[in-house]
């Protein structure tokens, strides 16, 4: 264990994996923030903490079951010439759920009409939100763990990187949720991101891999455009107030 601290390769894999885990976890944080937003204000923080804690526990358990994770990639059936594994099934199911959830949220935002705070609270049962968060945690954790196994050679390094990444996400979850709540247009953009991620998961499940670099580049570009729009709107508001 001590020799790991003196090995530059170990530190390099730890830093690389930590950054990748944080990047992969952005989708998870966005989903948790949107799901928790339908809860009463006093329950949202607890939902985010439970959701991210669940993600941490799931990822550590999956890391400790590396042999089982590798086995998930073994084909169990052939459908239309494609060798389907349990990993593929989980990715397809998770992607379809993400597409359904994001599409439903977009409908409620655009066509759902005006709801009072009380109506929203009634619809969002705490246990239901936690179940949805944990379900997506499983899908995102599987992708995260497979990435970890492919980059680091030591289970200690994998677990350390995952713990650091989850702590960073816990710190960032509240500001992200507040920002999305204060700016409704960013919620629509975040939901569009989730649709894109859901599509990528389904494609991966059917062995049509979509490079994550393209997805994240699109997210960064769209996010930059949104920031410019928000800055312009704030500037116009200040000018109107000073006129």
Give keywords.
243 residues; two-stranded antiparallel ribbon; 10 helices
Quick structural gist:
With 243 residues, the chain is mainly alpha-helical. It has helices spanning 2-5, 8-36, 41-63, 66-72, 86-110, 117-123, 126-151, 155-182, 184-205, 212-242; strands at 75-79, 82-85.
Question: What report would you give on this structure?
Answer:
This protein has 243 residues and is mainly α. Helices cover 83% and strands 4% of the residues. It has helices at residues 2-5, 8-36, 41-63, 66-72, 86-110, 117-123, 126-151, 155-182, 184-205, 212-242, and strands at residues 75-79, 82-85. It has a two-stranded antiparallel ribbon. Helix 3 packs antiparallel against helix 8. It is globular, with a radius of gyration of 20 Å. Mean pLDDT is 77; it is low at 114-123.
């Amino acid at each position: 264990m001590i020799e790991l601290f003196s090995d530059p390769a170990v530190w390099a894999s730890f830093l690389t994996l930590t950054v990748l885990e944080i990047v992969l976890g952005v989708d998870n944080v966005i989903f948790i923030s949107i799901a928790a937003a339908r809860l009463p204000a006093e329950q949202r923080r607890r939902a985010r903490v439970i959701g991210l804690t669940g993600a941490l526990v799931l990822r550590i358990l999956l890391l400790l079951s590396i042999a089982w994770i590798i086995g998930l990639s073994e084909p169990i059936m052939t459908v239309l010439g494609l060798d389907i594994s349990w990993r593929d099934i989980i990715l397809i199911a998770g992607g379809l759920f993400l597409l359904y959830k994001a599409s439903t949220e977009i409908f409620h935002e655009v066509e759902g009409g005006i709801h009072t705070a009380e109506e929203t609270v009634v619809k969002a049962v705490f246990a239901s939100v936690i179940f949805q968060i944990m379900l997506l945690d499983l899908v995102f954790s599987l992708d995260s763990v497979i990435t970890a196994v492919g980059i680091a050679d030591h289970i200690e390094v994998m677990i350390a990187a995952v713990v650091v990444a989850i702590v960073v996400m816990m710190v960032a979850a509240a500001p992200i949720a507040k920002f999305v709540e204060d700016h409704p247009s960013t919620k629509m953009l975040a939901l569009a991101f989730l649709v894109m991620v859901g599509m990528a998961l389904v494609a991966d499940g059917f062995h049509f891999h979509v490079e994550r670099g393209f997805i994240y580049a699109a997210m960064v570009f769209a996010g930059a455009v949104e920031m410019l729009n928000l800055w312009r709107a704030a500037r116009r508001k200040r000018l109107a107030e000073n006129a």
